[in-house]
Amino acid sequence: MTSRRTFIKQSSLGLAALTFPFSKTKSVAPLCYFTKEMQWASYDEVGMMLNELGFDGADLSLRKRGSIEPENAAKELPKFVSALNRHGISVPMMASDIGGVGYPNIEEFLKIISDNGIKYYRMAYLKYDFKKSIEANIEIFHAGFQKLAALNAKYGLAASYQNHAGTSLGASVWDVVYSLKGIDKKQVGAQFDIRHAVVEGGESWPVDFAAIKSHINTIVTKDFYWAKNEAGKWKVKNVPLGEGMVDFDAYFKLYKEAGLDVPMTNHTEYPIFNEEQEHLSNKEKMKIILPVIRKDLNVIKKYL
């Protein structure tokens, strides 16, 4: 059977092929890494690291304080994508500050994304107006997603709205389901984050997954557990995959049963460098970060 990396590198159909319904016995969708933790590195160094680790693609951060500031995207994105491609790394997805069609110069920005071969972009988090009812908020979110879907169709893009713990749209997962009702996930879908789903859902996250699975167009892997801080208050602590409260056996079982074959991105939310290591050379930093990320990647590969 064709491996994921062989498929992505050899297919003449490129990124468009990644949306075709392949055999579900083994995923061929790209396995990516969110490069937020590599912003200290050059574009080529990011490509070198991802290639050495065995990732298929990069999940870039094109937002304020990201790998590329949005206003610099036209100049810098082609350079970054080209550097990654030279190392055999595709760029199917990215994170953005786009919250809807009101984003500054949105059509220009979407065209830049599309022209550089990126298919999926994660959206900014949408806030509730608690002066209105939840139902009224959902109607507003839904209308916004509909407008964005029409614009994405024009540029061949798909937005992904992530479920994130807290009080924004998506924390409960169900609100995203209703907000996306009737909208094609090829234009606007959900980025399912199992870490945040377990933080908010506890033991009910499988129900949340069942509710949202038909809308999922990208997924995130990360882990956590609850721990008391110095003040004695319970807080979420981000940890390497397999060391926290996420039941990856149960999760990937449901993932495979759902027949999902969508781009997956691994996030490293826990600290990698201590204060002294932050000042090391890039070469020394690479020696530290690679085994850390590889450990997470090995956990994921057990299930794919």
Notes on the structure:
With 304 residues, the chain is α/β, with parallel strands linked by helices. About 7% of the residues have low confidence. The radius of gyration is 19 Å and the shape is globular. The longest helix has 22 residues. It starts with a helix and ends with a helix. It has ten helices and ten strands. It has a single domain, classed as Divalent-metal-dependent TIM barrel enzymes (TIM Barrel). The strands form two sheets. An eight-stranded parallel barrel has the order 1-2-3-4-5-6-7-10, surrounded by five helices.
List keywords for this structure.
globular, 16% strand, TIM Barrel, two-stranded antiparallel ribbon, 38% helix, 10 helices, alpha/beta, 304 residues
**Rg of Cα set:** 19 Å
- The fold-level CATH name is TIM Barrel
Number of helices: 10
Please report which band the strand proportion falls in: under 5%, 5-15%, 15-25%, 25-35%, 35-45% or over 45%.
15-25%
Strand order of the largest sheet: 1-2-3-4-5-6-7-10
CATH architecture: Alpha-Beta Barrel
Helix content: 25-40%
Mean pLDDT over all positions: 92
